[in-house]
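Why this split exists: single-chain examples teach little about how molecules sit against one another. For that reason, every record in the complexes split bundles all components of an assembly together and asks for one structure covering all of them. Below is a record exactly as it appears in the raw files.
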Amino acid sequence: MASGLGETCAIFFLTLIFAIPLGMVVALMRRSRFKVLSLISGFFISVLRGTPLMLQLLAVTYGPYYIFGVSVSRNKLIPVVIAFSINYAAYFAEIYRSGIESIPIGQYEASQVLGYTKLQTFMKIILPQVIRRILPSMTNEIVTLVKDTSMAFTVSYVEIFTLAKQIANSQTSFMPFIVAGVFYYVFNFIVSFVMRRVEKAMNYYTL
Amino acid sequence: MSVLSMTGIRKAFGDHTVLKDISLHVDKREVVSIIGPSGSGKSTLLRCAAFLETIDSGEIAYMDRPAVRTVNGKAVYEKDLKPFRRDFGLVFQNFNLFPHYSVMKNVTDAPLRVQKRDKQEVRAEAEKLLEKMGLSDKADAYPCELSGGQQQRVSIVRALMMNPEILFFDEPTSALDPELTGEVLKVIKQLADEKMTMVIVTHEMAFAHSISDRVIFMDCGVIVEQGTPRELFEGTRKERTRQFLQNYNQAMGVREQDSAPEA
Ligand SMILES: Nc1ncnc2c1ncn2[C@@H]1O[C@H](COP(=O)(O)OP(=O)(O)O)[C@@H](O)[C@H]1O
Ligand SMILES: [Mg+2]
């Protein structure tokens, strides 16, 4: 089962690496004054949040075969990470958006009067405050992501849950599931611990 | 030379015209106070001057350089407003300090990042100004650790650090507890004594009386009257001004009675 551990971690970290910036792009599109961008982004978010992740996994993995006749690659890590990344990007985008909207307009006005450019205002004044505000919701999503990685079993991607299921079937034992459960629990324990430390480190001011 | 020159300013929100042909010219070293009932357009006027609102028509110039002109009845802004932003500073009613920056960083970040000035020099200037405002022990504090009066003084330092030609204040003491307004007014008075060019929107009549070279009374988007503090506060011949000052004095009288200890 230990071999599945690496695969689970791969899904987890790669998803975070792609979804965190992608979510920001989607959130900024959503707030764009260009109606088209905002509509596209709104549609993207609503579809990805409104349909099961499991379905999205199947669609990304097998969709190309049914639509274009492209053979399904043996390495399922790529479609799995793509599916997770766009799904989580949609959730992150909504968190970013509410975070950005919670920053008082006065922060933008003060920056503008002081002569900061739009980019400087966003990067130096707004974003740090947004990050601080959204950390608790991000922690929730990331904890969910740890558990959601188990869904990769639907496309028989061999991560820890898939392995647990295979071993459980062959040995007719429930034990592998318990081991898997403990693994997710410990994983999330670490995630929560790390996030709490980050939150604390950013707590040097109150909003 | 006019530091700020606003001519024929019109501004509407939807079909509600908030500024109706307002002109305001401020000379170097002049201290101008704007008084008037709430909703009369005082903040909007300052916000237009600071480019936080776009005017519908009229002209705005800083140091005799036009920033906004009117062509065929429509306001046309200069493409690049950056050179004009350097000319003014704005102190907000609710400070708008950056909560994630220390006091020192709040007041030095823009001079460094925007004006690209020398770090040593900026820091030295900040220390001097903070000391002058009685904040020398607060340089490392965060805004949330300060009282409202202290926060407002920091925001005044932040504005001064940009070395503006003119400083705008939009009700700088209205968000403060009454016992904290004094310390902020004192600092503004100090700036007036040093002949800083300022436009101050305020409800503090005694203060406006004592520091202004000129007082402007605004109502319903027009300048009803302007003149020296004496002319306006003591010798007004306009009914609307008189009414406003009377209401104000009554309100103040009531407040003083309220807080007076019972006999
Ligand atoms: N962003 C806005 N959108 C719509 N109406 C506004 C806006 N800002 C101000 N107003 C209106 O403009 C009028 C003048 O407001 P303001 O300049 O804030 O007055 P004052 O500062 O004298 O109290 C008010 O009637 C106010 O409701
Ligand atoms: Mg106002």
